[in-house]
# Entry
Amino acid sequence: MEAEVLTRQAGFFISALTTISLALLSIEFISDYKLSFFPFSFIIVLYLAGLYLRNNFWRKAWKNDKKTLFRYSNIIIWVLGIALIAVFIYFGNSQIIVYPLSHYAFNVYLLLIAFIWTGYSALELYMVNGISSLTKYKNANYLAIAAIILVDLSFLVMNRFVYLLPISLVLLSASTIVSGIRVEKIY
# Structure
């Protein structure tokens, strides 16, 4: 039974680890303006593993509940997750010269990533709320909403306060862990 629960939660926990990795990488980038794409290879593998495991969880939720919301959300989350990484990789490959992080405020690709990610996160938060107790985890919703808003805001104000990005990514990681905890007693 414990193995089932850990498998169910693994996608969320791996996604949280991915987000923490991005936060650490952004702090390193802010401190010395050097960026090695070597760590990105591991982060991309973690991201895809987390996406795959979360997709499996939502597919199982659909098979157990037969709610059309889970069926379409399962597909939409997979498509948005792949689109997000594709835009990010395209953006990364187009960078011949690496500038300080503040240079990337209002970057079209980063804003597109933020837009895709917001849709992805809002949909998943809605689905987690659909299967988890709202009374016990009311504050978790505030944490998730704050993380969504701060990540989007960080892409807009990077030229003023670059440390908002790692702070918002740590908050997002905490929110993802709480979502993983919330799905423990489901199915």
In short: The CA atoms of residues 20 and 152 lie 17 Å apart. The longest helix spans residues 2-32. The mean pLDDT is 80. Helices lie at 2-32, 38-65, 68-93, 108-131, 138-156, 164-182.
